[in-house]
Amino acid sequence: MSEASVIHDIGYQRYEGPRLGRGAVFNSLYVHGLRAAYGFGRSAKAKIFPWLVFGIVSLVAVILAAVRAQTGLLPLNYIQFADAMSWLIIFFVAIVAPELVSRDMRAGVLPLYFSRPLRAADYVGAKVAAMVTAVWALLAVPQFIMFLGAAFTAKHGMSDVWKELGDLLPAWGYSLLWALLFTSIGLLIASLTGKRAFAAGGIVAVFLMTTPVVGVLSILRSTDAQELAGLASPMTLVSGVGQWLVPDANTGLFIGRFGPVYLIEAITLIAGCLLLLLARYRKVASL
Amino acid sequence: MSTVAWITARGLFGRRRALLLLPLPLLLIGLAALCRAAGVAPSDWGVPVLVGLGLAVVLPVISLIVGTGVLGSEVDDGTIVHILTKPLPRRDIILAKLGVAVGVSALSSAIPLFVAGWLADSVGFGLALAVAAVVGAFAYSALFLLLSLLTRRPVLLGLVYILVWEGLLGRFVSGTRVLSIEQYVITIADKIEPTTLLESKVSLPVAVIMAAIFILGCAIASVDRLRSFSMAGETS
Description:
The structure holds 2 protein chains of 2 kinds.
Chain A: H1 22-37, H2 44-71, H3 78-84, H4 86-107, H5 110-114, H6 120-152, H7 158-190, H8 196-217, H9 223-228, H10 234-245, H11 259-280
Chain B: H1 2-13, H2 23-38, H3 42-77, H4 80-84, H5 90-120, H6 123-150, H7 154-172, H8 181-192, H9 204-227
């Protein structure tokens, strides 16, 4: 080894084409995540659970639209519909969140991802965006079915349709809030373990254990405690924000004058979970 | 056989994973104590805490995580091969795994339910709840252990059972209650120590016989399934 050692150029052709940057990586992670959420590009077995949930939610929407078209009664409005589906949304989050993040940890691909021009924030952002889209679609498409049912049976033409649209758009925003809150909590829990089974169980446990807390707080004697009880559970937290922003939503939750508190907690919770998620991906283990 | 049980227990609890089982039972006791301290009548808080949290969430969810974890995580890792290739009867493997699962879920749900029941009514009611929770832990663990052998997604299928079958259908469609372990647990607790807090919706013979069928049937089916178990790769 007298001479300085060199790496010999053995004549392979070099890649000279365009190099796609962070944007392209983000985009493909997003598309991949969204497809994975509904099991596209996977075996039939991977499609069973997401489409089961989507099917049930759509079926309920179709039934509601049919009841309304036949009898003129409205059993559930758009916002009550989202609330009524809360258990199915929890189940959907428990299906999708482990699929998106736990799999990557399990397969040990994170060090490969992060050896690309991809930052932790891009990875987290793409996963969150994909899952928010998936959960939002789970609620928004059935709500749109209900809207179509109402629009085609409108008695007074366009004015009814406009009024209906005025109900639908806030409800889509409300569904987005559901999606944001449930995604950030669900992904945070799922990112802690590489085992999808444990991640799914953990997500359901966290969401379900908060409901009885609300039940207990709302039977305490103090009125303030009753009106603040909804803060204890993500489901009632979203309902409270909806009740405050859309007063004729009739969510059945009494929030008194604490509407802003609900909104602030919802925003803080989403931001906090996303920051923790970012912190989680500051360092990834390379098996 | 004891080695299998030991490995299983270590797989569940190694590296401080046991701490993850603590929050649910602590929440149950904490809520019961809070209600008691705030002077709310037990008839008001009994149902949401004992049934809504204790019997509908803590018992099934802990049994689900533990019951599918004892065998399912080894199937996922592929380490089940090491146990299957040992000269052990498959029955002993299943019994050891089931024993660990039942022990853990029974301990972590019966103790908080006993405390909460004691705070709500009397020591007798607490004991009745604890006994019923142990029966429930047996039935749930056997069911979820079987699920982890039948499918590669046992947790999701178990969640369908807990959330949809027992949670949604059990409330509205009375016929499904005959196949709902939660209802057996409620009935058994109510018949041991009758109170106004629990309302049993199936008869005691149905509850006891169906629980026994669940436990034995699922355990035997698991043994049978493990006899001809074929390994497969990661689910796609």
